[in-house]
Amino acid sequence: MRRAAGFRETTVRSAADRAQWHPSKQNAALALSALHTAKIEVNDNAIARGLATVVWPARFQRWDERTIIDGAHNPAGARTPGRDVAETFGDQQATLVLAVLQEKDVAGICAALGPIARRWLLPIDPQ
């Protein structure tokens, strides 16, 4: 990986590392890049503490031992929890409760989650 000029390399063990779910690392990198671009100085220790304790509700969140909640809203976002369910539960397939807004890529989201789905529960909008 190439490092951009002016950026320092930092290794931080984050909540995402412990949770096995990593796309939020990209969000953190984007936030740090924005701080750098805006020339806002933030202490390395503060960044490390923040990333180590951050919580991403509804992002591969364990409700209980067998229930995972994830708010993925596009195919790219759905591929990651699909992969992580397979890594967490092996070959067991899941019952998915899926609610998607009309303007979203429903087919793409379903294709991303399809490999882990045993059964789909689809709430119906009564309107």
Please provide a brief summary of the model.
The chain has 127 residues and is an alpha+beta fold. The chain folds into 2 domains: 15-53, no CATH class; 61-121, Alpha-Beta Complex (Protein-Tyrosine Phosphatase, Chain A).
Could you walk me through the main structural features you see in this protein, from its secondary elements to its overall organization?
The chain folds into 2 domains: 15-53, no CATH class; 61-121, Protein-Tyrosine Phosphatase, Chain A (Alpha-Beta Complex). The N and C termini lie far apart (50 Å). It contains 5 helices and 4 strands, in the order αααββαβαβ. It has helices spanning 15-19, 23-37, 44-53, 75-89, 106-113; strands spanning 61-64, 67-69, 94-97, 117-121. It is elongated and about 50 Å long. With 127 residues, it is of the alpha+beta class. Helix 4 (75-89) packs parallel to helix 5.
